[in-house]
């Protein structure tokens, strides 16, 4: 038996000694609920979470108004409901959790020794809601409360690591939304500090490791430094090694590692990385419920991986491309319209459809891909780090539509979009070679249509840069070299 099992057994026996009417029954209910919730957090048994919710509700009913323990039970019940919201995506659970969290904060008596718990708990509840619906008011309030909670947990406080990690998560979310580099830098610093406070064997170490990996992967996408993605992969693998198979966050952790390996593949083109990413993404998807708030991410990363595999000539059959389309469209169907990563899901589905068009030539696929990519661009903003990717996806769709239909306006817009993507992305941006490749092909098509020699010169210059940026063994390197050869021969 685990330590949790022993404690549950002990507390059940203690509860049996406190029958209805006993003045200490509420405390016994609360204590058993807390341990069951902790066991759920460690092993993922849904029945533990459901029982914890029922027990904490029963405890709350027994607390007289103004009882000093009422706030603690409100916090416990709100945490349990938020766990169920993250697992099953039931909006009412989140709404009730936030309401309870606010009540707990208001009920704290003056001079309460632990006001930080109520503040930090409410911040986490608001963050969960933001990740589901994308309303920035939830994120802004979470950051404000996160800062306040951290101030109440100075160096030496036993729960400082948790506050550092949470605030790091909130700032990372704002960076992904607004692109402020100081948010990314602060997120990295806080995560590093949290990691120092969670040595091997610490129960929160896996969560901190994966939080750090996510931030490093974001910086890799922005700046392209291989050391970032290599470290992200290393610490993600270390985190998985100490995460039980049925841990509630295991799917989330698998998804993070899959994303890191996929990005490494985009940079270096090593097929082993792509295949590992596919296997991990499938495992993550298998662990998520249909209603899970996290399911769109699992669908999206697997779609992106399979799209990449599908376009590698001679490597796979069309079944991967078909599955990529299905997964990408499903991610859109199960995500909220205001989801903060909605532009990513739209671009994922658009790319899968665009690649299928390139293989089979269905204009319906191309039109739908173009529509989805344009919607993604409309939902994005200039400051968003993902914005250049939205521009690049739409540019590719419009370039392909020009090739298919010959409308010059499509080519001109594609050229402008690709130029803007390059201007907005940093020099080491992960997708810089792709944007350069798109722009080069646009100039080449323009030369073929208009016979302006400057366009051909630009296509050759950009094509040479692409070849220099892509390693010789990269699967896309062959395509880049073939494109450059075609430009020079013209």
Total count of helical runs of at least 4 residues: 22
Overall shape: elongated
Overall mean pLDDT stands at: 93
Secondary structure: helix percent: over 70%
Largest sheet: none
Structural class: mainly alpha
> Approximately what portion of the residues adopt beta-strand conformation?
under 5%
Low-confidence stretches: none
Order of helices and strands: HHHHHHHHHHHHHHHHHHHHHH
| Computed Rg | 25 Å
The first-to-last residue Cα distance is 74 Å
User: What is the total tally of β strands?
Assistant: 0
Overview of the structural elements:
The structure is a single chain. This protein starts with a helix and ends with a helix. The protein is mainly α. It is built from 22 helices and no strands. The mean pLDDT is 93.
Which labels suit this protein?
elongated; 490 residues; 78% helix; mainly alpha; 0% strand; 22 helices
Produce the secondary structure layout:
Layout: H1 3-16, H2 25-43, H3 46-62, H4 70-88, H5 91-107, H6 115-133, H7 136-151, H8 160-178, H9 181-196, H10 205-223, H11 226-241, H12 250-268, H13 271-286, H14 295-310, H15 318-334, H16 342-360, H17 363-379, H18 387-405, H19 408-424, H20 432-450, H21 453-469, H22 475-489
